Amino acid sequence: MKLQQLRYVWEVAQQNLNISAAAEALYTSQPGVSRQIRALEEELKIQIFARSGKQLTHITPAGVEILRYIGRVLEESNNIKHTAQQYSDPQRGSLSIATTHTQARYALPPVIASFIHRYPNVTLHMHQGTPLQIAEQAAKSEVDFAIATEAMELFEDLVMLPCYRWNRCLVVPQNHPLQALENLTLEAVANYPIVTYVFGFTGRSTLDEAFQQAGLIPNVVFTATDADVIKTYVRLGLGIGIIAKMAYDPQIDQDLCALDASHLFASNTTKIGLCRNIFIREYMYDFIEAFAPHLNHEQVNLAMQATNPTAREALFEGIELPLY
């Protein structure tokens, strides 16, 4: 049994049994992948993949169990490499982060700029996607960290650390009727077409819950994953925008007015998710603390060692998260 064979099996499973795609991802040939998988199956005397002719059709029950162990082996293999790098050259390595547009565009730039200045020999990779996609990437150890507000709790293998709280604002063209209101209400907001985030992005579920609890049906006419796109369509007159407050820039968005909506919608918490078995290098600890100062080395280790989510949440009771 070779580590290379395990990587081939794992990648084929990740590529929905597409051997060609797996071979491309592994920078090798399709026949080579097939041959190595066959060799492993012969050694184990079981089939990991069921076949119809030359096509893989599904993962066998035995294969499902074996893939669980393969995932752990590959994780530990990466941890061995990271441990060696930590001691051989603690200032050199890579850091991969999966996050949403809002985090990448508004929350992370100063942290990343400072990190790169401090660690010029650490290559930083950023992957953007939906909250579900990025949480899955972290759970599968395809990235080191996932940073998002939604969907992270769906993955049991992720340790989620709270970073900061944030709320929303309404963005409207200058001299909009809503500006004249002394007390902005959900009823007043519901009278206008709304442009906001796609469901599952950037705390959208909290927004929907607020309208539902008030017995109101918002007239959402346009959704997007990107606050800049939302503001563009507000400028075009499609409706009023509801975005993360941090996404409004008084300098860039001078033609729009931001109306505080923190009293209308509950705040959301952005979290950083790490795979339970990840080896955390020193520069990774530093990145986490730069992004969320209360998450120091000791606090992160305690959270990683907590036996369940309830015990982990107890670690952060009484800690006032920053509000953006």
Strand order of the largest sheet: 4-3-5-12-6
Residue fraction in strands: 15-25%
What is the 3D form? globular
Structure annotation, total helices: 13
- Rounded Rg: 23 Å
pLDDT < 50 stretches: none
Number of DSSP strands? Answer: 12
Describe this structure in words.
With 324 residues, the protein is of the alpha/beta class. Helices cover 42% and strands 21% of the residues. The chain is built from 13 helices and 12 strands. It has helices spanning 3-14, 19-25, 30-44, 61-88, 101-107, 109-118, 131-139, 186-189, 204-213, 227-235, 282-291, 297-305, 309-315, and strands at residues 49-52, 55-59, 93-99, 122-128, 145-148, 158-166, 168-173, 194-197, 220-224, 240-244, 256-260, 268-275. The protein has a 5-stranded mixed beta sheet with strand order 4-3-5-12-6, sandwiched between helices. Helix 2 (19-25) packs across helix 3 and helix 12 (297-305) packs antiparallel against helix 13.
Describe the protein's topology:
Elements: H1 3-14, H2 19-25, H3 30-44, E1 49-52, E2 55-59, H4 61-88, E3 93-99, H5 101-107, H6 109-118, E4 122-128, H7 131-139, E5 145-148, E6 158-166, E7 168-173, H8 186-189, E8 194-197, H9 204-213, E9 220-224, H10 227-235, E10 240-244, E11 256-260, E12 268-275, H11 282-291, H12 297-305, H13 309-315
Parallel strand pairs: 3-4, 3-5, 8-9, 8-10
Antiparallel strand pairs: 1-2, 5-12, 6-12, 7-10, 7-11
